[in-house]
Backbone:
């Protein structure tokens, strides 16, 4: 340990001989390290963030109309009440949340604003977190929940009354149905994208606004299995039992999502590899220049009996010292840039605001740090080899003339 | 007297820009324990090459070198490195101290390599720096020392592992006359205290200081 520490100290002192060169190299390594860290966070973060978002309320299974993804189309499935009842009688299932998603309008004076409406069963809600006010109760047929953007659009707060207009009749451009509802609470809808003006009512109210009361239609059923570990098995069983519907486990949805965002993963691999190559080139170049400048010194060390092993270790320590400093700075830089990039990427239309592309985790930091340290050490191999095989006598002869 | 060094019929050829140079054409010498030998001669006479061969830094084209009874051509590279570390001390014309280390750390370096415990090597380094008159400069970096001081530190470094033989290549070549005289005085004291010395020089005055002077010309020992 002592030799290790003094070796590192010696390395730092050696690197300090050319401070500007060292600072520029460290800056380059830090930028590469930041990029690598961001790419590691990106490649693993998409899956993880999406999976966590799906499991935010503990519902592990989604059931939607055959051939559709949840909320991907306006398709609905009928006879929701009977299906929910059947599923709730399943001993493996703890809870079932039927949800209807539809577009509707809010009336402000003589104008209409477009909203997105969720019909939910408050006793099994899986879509939102209450931020202010009170939650809906199962028999609350006049209450409504608003998202922040919906509240701003309707100029309404908790306790206010809002007018919701169902689908317009295309023949007369007139609302088929209008409801006056009282704002009970302000909520954050988990799957909303930024600035999405969403409202929520109990399911029958939204079905009536969507003009779908008779067939008891819903867009989606969320199913919570009692035992998390049994969720994949239950999902597989439901696929068998409900062949006319589409049953998704979280893993299925993550897989679909990964296919859709495969280019992000490819981008992260390419940029991560490039950042590693840049790191290797930077360290190798700097150390090779340093070794060539110090051949006289190295030959002298070898002449007075310093072993090849010590010389090699010294050069490798310098690579390690550069990498260590660059990595520490790179982690800080990477976390900062990840936050900035995440803000840009998550503002893409259609992406839930709760979703993150870059998820900083200890394992991401560890992976990026280890890869960099190994790479940095390997990058010192060539200059270390040059130092180890430096011919002592010719160099000393050249030095003397 | 015990022979510390025996060199027999040493020849060394090497190529410079494609031209074969016969640097040594059959040189033999023997140095006994406690001797102070100067190898003198003009530039290009082969004296530095001779020093490199007897110091195990270079390998002769033919001939043999024995240090304390050990033939260098029988040693592996790592054994030869170890022998240079523990049995020989080197002083170079351009000092070649590590500029990032202090005088004390430079002197400790060969001892650290030899595995001498930290406390012991610190004490020995301080003792050696005091011997060469630089105890007050122990904490100074090599770059903060004058030429004469650097050469004194280099001598202290060469003595660190108590070598059987001290080899010096033009030790006053980079120093002014006054400073060089101080180094010669130090060599006299070292020899008086029992150190065996072989000093390569083109300076006849320095050669005259030695107990025995060997003169070289065209890769051969003349007398």
Residues:
């Amino acid at each position: 340990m002592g030799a290790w520490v003094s070796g590192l100290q010696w390395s730092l002192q050696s690197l300090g001989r050319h401070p500007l060169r060292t600072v520029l190299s460290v800056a380059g390594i830090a930028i590469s390290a930041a990029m690598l860290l961001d790419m590691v966070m990106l490649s693993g973060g998409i899956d993880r963030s999406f999976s966590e978002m799906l499991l935010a309320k503990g519902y592990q299974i989604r059931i939607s109309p055959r051939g559709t993804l949840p909320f991907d189309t306006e398709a609905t499935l009928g006879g929701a009440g009977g299906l929910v009842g059947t599923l709730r009688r399943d001993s493996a299932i703890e809870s079932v949340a039927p949800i209807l998603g539809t577009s509707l309008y809010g009336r402000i004076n003589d104008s209409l604003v477009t909203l997105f409406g969720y019909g939910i069963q408050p006793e099994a809600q899986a879509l939102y977190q209450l931020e202010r006010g009170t939650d809906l109760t199962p028999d609350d047929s006049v209450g409504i929940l608003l998202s922040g953007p919906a509240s701003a659009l309707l100029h309404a707060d908790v306790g206010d009354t809002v007018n919701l207009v169902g689908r317009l009749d295309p023949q007369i451009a007139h609302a088929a149905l209008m409801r006056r509802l009282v704002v009970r609470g302000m909520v954050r809808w988990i799957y909303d994208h930024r600035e999405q003006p969403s409202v929520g009512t109990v399911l029958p109210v939204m079905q009536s606004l969507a003009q779908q009361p008779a067939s008891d239609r819903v867009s989606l059923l969320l199913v919570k299995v009692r035992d998390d570990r049994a969720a994949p098995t239950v999902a597989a069983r439901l696929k068998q039992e409900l062949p006319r519907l589409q049953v998704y486990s979280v893993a299925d949805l993550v897989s679909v999502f990964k296919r859709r965002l495969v280019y992000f993963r490819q981008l992260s691999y390419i940029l991560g590899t490039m950042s590693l190559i840049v790191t290797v080139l930077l360290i190798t170049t700097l150390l090779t220049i340093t070794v060539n400048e110090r051949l006289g010194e190295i030959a002298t060390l070898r002449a007075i009996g310093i072993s090849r092993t010590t010389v090699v270790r010294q050069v490798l320590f310098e690579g390690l010292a550069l990498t260590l400093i660059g990595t520490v700075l790179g982690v800080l830089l990477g976390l900062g840039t990840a936050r900035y990039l995440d803000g840009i990427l998550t503002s893409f239309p259609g992406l839930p605001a709760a979703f993150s592309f870059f998820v900083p985790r200890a394992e991401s930091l560890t992976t990026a740090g280890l890869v960099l340290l190994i790479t940095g050490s390997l990058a010192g191999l060539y200059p270390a080899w040059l130092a180890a095989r430096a011919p002592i006598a010719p160099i000393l002869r050249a030095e003397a003339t | 007297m015990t022979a510390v060094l025996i060199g027999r019929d040493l020849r060394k050829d090497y190529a410079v820009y494609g031209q074969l140079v016969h640097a040594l054409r059959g040189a033999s010498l023997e140095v006994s324990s406690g001797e102070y030998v100067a190898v003198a001669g003009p530039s290009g006479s082969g004296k530095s090459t001779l020093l490199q061969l007897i110091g195990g830094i270079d390998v002769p084209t033919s001939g043999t070198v024995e240090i304390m009874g050990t033939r260098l051509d029988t040693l592996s590279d790592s054994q030869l490195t170890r022998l240079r570390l523990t049995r020989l001390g080197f002083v170079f014309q351009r000092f070649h101290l590590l500029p990032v280390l202090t005088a004390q750390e430079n002197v400790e370096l060969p001892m650290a390599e030899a595995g001498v415990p930290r406390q012991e090597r610190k004490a020995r380094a301080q003792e050696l720096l005091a011997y060469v008159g630089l105890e007050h400069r122990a904490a100074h970096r090599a770059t903060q020392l004058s030429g004469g001081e650097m050469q004194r530190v280099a001598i202290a470094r060469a003595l660190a592992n108590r070598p059987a033989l001290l080899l010096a290549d033009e030790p006053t070549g980079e120093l002014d006359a006054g400073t060089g005289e101080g180094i010669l005085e130090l060599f006299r004291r070292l020899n008086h205290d029992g150190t065996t010395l072989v000093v390569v020089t083109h300076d006849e005055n320095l050669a005259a200081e030695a107990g025995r002077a060997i003169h070289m010309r065209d890769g051969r020992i003349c007398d």
Remarks:
- Residues 153 and 386 of chain A are 69 Å apart (CA to CA).
- Chain A is about 50% helix and 20% strand.
- The first strand of chain A starts at residue 61 and ends at 65.
